[in-house]
MSLN protein (Atlantisia rogersi), 167 residues
Amino acid sequence: QLSCLVKMVTLNGIPKDLDSYPEDMLLFLSPSDYAATGSCRQYFAHIGKANLPVLPRESSQRKQLLLEALECLKIPGKQVNKENAEILGRLVCDLGGEYITSSGGNLLKQLSQCESFLPDQEEAIRSVINSGNTTFGPPVAWSAFTLDELSGLIPVLCHSILQKIPK
């Protein structure tokens, strides 16, 4: 339906008010289509808020979106800063474990919105949390607020991490 909607909306060219359309629809446009109305950063900020699971995780379209986002944001190597993590939004769910490890705690908040993780992502999340080198601090210093912020990551946490969290 979304793909069909994009075809209808863009039938007479790319509309100038793309920002007023649902983010999920933008998943079916390319950054170059959007370029006429805004920057690629703006495009990926919208994509980061979209319901990413509309596209299957292993689909070429979803993989291409992530590659284009990394290129647009000029992310050097595997390290993503907080500002870029916010722009990427749900796209961080597709970043490999090496990105998660290299970025420290910068991705945790966005990762907590992901529906599922691959084994290397889970391992990287546990490693980053165990390091305690995040804005949330080590698990022994966590509060109910912290658990609420990271609630989507709780299933990934191992017993040794869970034991450290104060009751």
About this structure: The chain has a mean pLDDT of 87.
